[in-house]
Amino acid sequence: MRYDRIAVVGAGAWGVALANVAARAGRTVTLVARDREAAAAIATARESPRLPGIAIDRRVRVGAALDGEATAVLLAVPAQSLRGVAAALQIAPTTSVIACAKGIEQTTLRFMTEIIAQTLPHTIPAILSGPSFALDVARGLPTAVTLAATDAGLAEALAQAIGAPTFRVYHSTDVRGVEIGGAAKNVLAIAAGIVDGKKLGSSAAAAMTTRGFAELARFAAAFGARTTTLMGLSGLGDVILTCSSAQSRNYSLGVALGQGAAPQAARGGKLAEGAFTASALVALAQHKNIDMPISTAVAAVLAGKLSVDDAIEALLMRPFRAEE
User: Fold this and answer.
1) Which residue from 84, 188, 222, 299 has the highest number of Cβ atoms inside 10 Å of its Cβ?
2) Which listed residue (185, 198, 199, 288) is catalytic?
């Protein structure tokens, strides 16, 4: 199948960025907003209020409904909203549906492609993840990401469909590994922000990121992920980006927590996927008896069960052990 008609569902920052990329790749693109009023406003302004100052490519059609002929649908909506959005879609059974959110559903502990498989059982799920800020992608700055589907040919075809010279899309069949890397690194980014917010120093930041990545690797291995995936763009690459930049909402949330803000106030009205993923990640880890002390501490702080200072002390007082 030729994936030359792309629909991007979600007209936020990431949706606009992906729509612009697909248009630059020469595809026919429809950007779907949440309702007719929002679609009309965005179509008139040719920009999204979530990404002010960035023009939507003139070749992108903005609407409130899917293009009935779309051969691939990119779900650029928050992880906790993905189920509801996917369930409302009316698409052909052969359509490929690509999750573009990095998270785990908090209520069901399901990964994004699992939700697509449940809500749209006759479609073909895939996942797009990697080190990518929406503003960079929308502006056409060089970025590289990973797209995974269980079928190698499909993954390659979809990567070719949305890839562009400045948006390099590598393909993979390690769906779970790509999903875990994107979801878990958001929790690590919160921890990295806490370290910086508390001004614990660069050495502490390096130690936290390294040990946090070890947690991510243990978790992913338990779910059958490949080591090469974890060392790639959707694993280590995304950790490097989001654990060191104020552009990351998860990192910024952590900084605010480290500076003494309460969990709700620290969010500042912005979506930080890691705030929802943390508890789900820890619950899955406990189910499989995986040791994840940093993620567990972050989840406890976000839930108000532990202060930042107490969480740091608990981590520092853990018994010495062999590095693994």
Assistant:
1) 188
2) 185
